Each structure stands twice: as structure tokens, then as C-alpha cells.
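FW: tagging you since you asked about this chain on Friday. Here's the raw sequence from the shared folder, copied in full. Didn't touch anything.
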Amino acid sequence: MNFKSCLLIASFSAFALGGCSGEPNEPAAGSDPTSASKQGGKGSVDNAPVPQENSVGATPPARPTVPERFRGLFAMDRQACAEDYNYAPAFQNVRIEAQSVSFFETGGPVTNVQVDGEMAAITLRETVGDGEFTRAIYLAINPDGSVRYRQGKDQPSQNYVRCEGK
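HL: got it, structure written out here
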């Protein structure tokens, strides 16, 4: 296991423990949750071998897939599930699909998924305006079906509801 993978695991563990304590989650100092997508970290679903650039007819690696239990529309409260943007919290909704994540005006394809039980770190290539950025989001499923959602490594986690039928 390389150094960056260890940092990812430390960051992921900090998310899990912080969510249980009720305190804001703090990632491990210097952690980079997106490094697993570059290194193919242990536990990653996109560890498929990468074909050489000059390989003719090589099959591209399988795209990472978000497990079914982490997919759906998640919102700050049930009213925001209606996706009525006259209600301000609806702008904070997040839709997670098998191979993409979308927000109000941004989103992009999933590039890495790390799963540990009921917790997931999902890295995506987010398109914002004309630019593309790498972003990691974090989810932990609560016993009641809601999730603790963290928008990035420097953000606190928030409880979100799973919107039924969305």
C-alpha cells in the first residue's frame, strides 16, 4: 500500500469517526481523497489495468460504479425533494447515479469509488462553467436510511434525506 492510499484510508476513517461523534469531520492532515483515482487505491472499484497508450484495440478499463445503496436523490429535507427551486434548500440537492453525480448546475462522471461498509467516498470530474475539476464527496448511510453527506474534505457533514422514488 502506498503513502497516498494510507492517507485516503486515514481521511475516510476520520469521516466515519467524526460522523459518529456529532462533531464536524476533519480529514487527516495532508490527505488527498482524489489520489486513489490516480493510484488505483486498495478497495477501489476502478483498479482495472490501464492499457498502454499505444495499444491497438485495447479495451478501456471499466468505469467505476456507485453501489445501488448510495444512489438516489438526496436533499436537506423532504420539501426539497420536490425539486421546486422557489424553495432555497432545493439548490443543495445531490443526485447520485451509477456513474455520475449532479448538483444544481454542475456535476460530472464518477472517476473513483471507495466503499467501506455503509460509507462511500466518491470522486468525480465536475464541470463548472468551462472548467473541469476533481472533487470528492462523502456519504455514510444512517440506520434510518438518511445519509450524512459531506460536500468536500474541508466541509462539515450534514444529514440529508433520501428522496423516495427519485
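FW: The longest helix spans residues 3-21.
HL: agreed, and The mean pLDDT is 76.
FW: great, closing this out.
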